[in-house]
Design a protein that fits this description.
It is a single chain. The chain has 427 residues and is mostly helical. The chain is 77% helix and 0% strand. Helix 8 crosses helix 17 and helix 9 runs antiparallel to helix 13. The N and C termini lie far apart (53 Å). The N terminus is likely disordered.
Length: 427
């Protein structure tokens, strides 16, 4: 038999019985994510704030690079030993990044980044005051731990808060801030060390880092698409990391971060030792000014992000690696202008590859983007630490020719990884 139609309630029945209350059931619909759109005031504030965070992070991290020949002379140590002032920082930074994404899931993005920038600036000021080489290394290691709270969390903030259609451009702008900070840190310390001392140089840069940290905190909008998790669930974080490693293309992008950054830092670590010797005999100011080629990295990051959004990230990525390889090969020349041209090409190619690989990690990660960013940057900074120090042994074995061979092999492996990752991502 057919089922009887369900009787609809009569509103007048309820109106005639005032003792009955009508209960309205609210239907809760999932809220749409509120992304920051290009051109809005909030987008501009976030862009400036993250530019400042990148500037502070990389100026504080790499400010010791032009000082390595000075450290070697002042503390009577070898070039490979002097590289520990950077390698220890990047090594501890790699470890800290791995944990920072998990910590930020509970404490929030903005507060963790601010505390990290503030602590790192104070450490740089302390480095200017310590009496011994080993004390300086301990503080640089601590500074690396503190700075770990910035890069992975900043990448996660961008992936969560920026409109996905413009993520490549915004990531490129953030990395442009990294490039500007890396340039400023090297140029400022190199110049001040020449006219005053390396201690004055580090102290001044630490004060600049403090100002950038405060500006970052005042400008960055609060997260709108992120909800902190209560407590610390180790299994949740482990599942997130394992999930990203299980993604076929992501581990190859992590490898590209290791290889590209390892190449970049190795060249910058030891090119100074080559250029302060005959026939070039550059002083600290002249050596520091070479790092102004980072301006090309700033432009390359921004252009690469826009091109990646338009023509495809997996087209731009191998192109960046190829440009970097051409730059490394060019530094084999004995001509100083050609050496500088090689550094320009390396810098541009590196920042193209890094900008695009960072955006691809954000695009290909399925949820928990902070964890994916932490894995990428873990590989990235391990590459800086391991390859940056290993390059010293190649320099000691056969000079610049051995450094070039070492770095070209790394870039060749990076090119293979980029091509395979593109094929896997299409599948």
């Amino acid at each position: 038999m057919p089922r009887a139609a369900k009787k609809q309630p009569d509103v007048s029945e309820f109106q005639s019985r005032p003792n009955l209350k009508v209960v309205e059931t609210a239907v809760v619909e999932p809220q749409e994510k509120q992304f920051l759109l290009r051109g809005t005031p909030a987008y501009r504030r976030a862009s400036i704030a993250l530019f400042l965070s990148g500037f502070a992070t990389f100026s504080l991290l790499y400010c010791v690079q032009p000082l390595m020949p000075v450290f070697a002379e002042h503390f009577a140590i070898s070039p490979a030993a002097s590289s520990l002032s950077l390698s220890l920082s990047t090594g501890f930074l790699a470890f800290a990044i791995f944990c920072a994404a998990a910590v930020s899931e509970s404490f929030g993005r903005r507060s963790l980044m601010f505390a990290s920038l503030l602590g790192a600036a104070i450490c740089t000021i302390a480095c200017a005051l310590v009496p011994s080489w080993h004390a300086l290394l301990v503080i640089r290691a601590l500074e690396g731990l503190l700075l770990g709270g910035v890069p992975a969390v900043a990448m996660a903030y961008l992936s969560e808060e920026i409109d996905p259609r413009g993520l490549g451009a915004s990531m490129g702008l953030y990395i442009a801030g990294n490039a500007f900070g890396g340039m400023a840190g090297r140029v400022v310390t190199g110049t001040l060390a020449e006219f005053f001392s390396w201690r004055v140089a580090l102290g001044a840069l630490g004060m600049l880092g403090l100002a950038a940290a405060i500006g970052f905190f005042l400008l960055l909008p609060a997260s709108r698409n992120f909800t902190p998790r209560k407590g610390f669930d180790a299994r949740f974080h482990l599942r997130a990391w394992v999930g990203h490693i299980s993604n076929p293309a992501l581990p190859l992008l992590f490898a590209i971060g290791f290889l590209a950054m390892g190449t970049f830092v190795t060249v910058y670590n030891y090119i100074g030792f080559r250029l302060v010797q005959a026939p070039y005999n550059l002083n600290q100011t002249e050596l520091g000014l070479i790092f102004t080629v980072y301006l090309f990295g700033i432009a390359a990051s921004w252009i690469a992000g826009m091109l990646g959004d338009r023509i495809g990230h997996f087209i731009v990525l191998p192109a960046g690696i190829a440009v970097a390889a051409a730059g490394v090969a060019t530094t084999l020349s004995a001509s100083l202008p050609l050496i500088i041209l090689g550094i320009v090409l390396l810098t541009s190619g590196f920042f193209i590859a890094h900008s695009v690989a960072s955006a691809l990690v954000g695009r290909l990660a399925r949820g928990t983007k902070g964890h994916a960013s932490s894995l990428y940057l873990l590989s990235y900074y391990i590459g800086s630490s391991v390859a940056g120090s290993a390059g010293g042994y190649f320099w000691g074995a056969d000079g610049w020719n051995a450094v070039v061979v070492f770095t070209l092999i790394m870039l060749a492996l990076g090119m293979i990884a980029a091509l395979v990752a593109a094929r896997l991502a299409r599948r």
